[in-house]
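Z., the sequence and structure:
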Amino acid sequence: MSISESYPPAFRRVINDEDRLATAEAEPVLVQGKDINIPVIDMERLDKEILREACKEWGIFRLENHGVPLALTSRLQEISESLLSLPFENKRDLFAAVNSPLSYFWGTPALNRSGDALKRGAQASNVTMLEGFNVPLSSLSKLPTSTSCDDDAQEPKLESFRVLMEEYGRHITRIVVSLFEAIAQTLNLELSGNRRSEFLSESTGLIRVYRYPRSSYQAAGEALGMEVHTDSSVISILKEDESGGLEIMKGEEWFCVKPVANTLIVNLGDMMQVISDDEYKSVTHRVKKKNRKTERHSVCYFVFPKRDCVIKSSNYKPFTYSEFEAQVQADVQSLGTKIGLPRFNPNSPLFL
């Protein structure tokens, strides 16, 4: 099987067109952001002042000594790449099993609550060259032991994937709870009673495994793998391969965040910005592939407030996460893109 057979048909057409252009024209020079060193947080010796500065000035930091075994992340990457390398039709069928909590998506990072790709409005740009698996951690135990996929040989891979995801999820949940409690302390945020579990609901935790094909050129000649966005989460935790491509906006400039072995990248999402009353920022970021000849693989964990948790802030009208999620999805479907927090900020021209 050729590697192109593992890609969705829409990807194959784009790649074939680019390959033909590459034979007739010089390969475009990609303008990348400048390299930058983001703050580093040592999980074993967590310094609250460094953490506060990282959240306030950056909204993103690198986490070292996090306690996730290297053997686990290596094996998870290996099995994820193996599943994503299956023929497109096999992946689609494998993850379409009846009552399976997992889903396979492609062409857009915008998903509904079930993990299915959202149909985007007419103003959306061309197909986004990424695919992946959506894995709600709380539902992994419900994964069927048999699937509707014709190739029964793939079922052991899926079972291995489930076991590894459960183990990785336990580690990441431990990390995110510790980080959130430390961040709350830097904000003097009261977390008595059930407030912590309302702001950071472990049951909402999900993991998305991404694969960016070997070519992700857009019409303008830029290799965008993930469009410019902020995360809707409280906190997101990224584990990426060595190919790099993550870029963040600081001030009015784009900067490259180089991958560092055996570290995780933590970024704050929109919900943390609101919880902090805008003291901490949801970082604007994108993925811009640097090498069109290689794929990029990453695993990202997202966690949210409880769906019915009312989030109050002096800068936004009160809302529940369910209301925020519904507005994001409505904007994606009608406008082709997420608007996010400005929809809830009375001082924004985009306020509804």
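DSSP finds eight helices and 15 strands in the chain. The mean pLDDT is 87.

Let me know what you think.
H.
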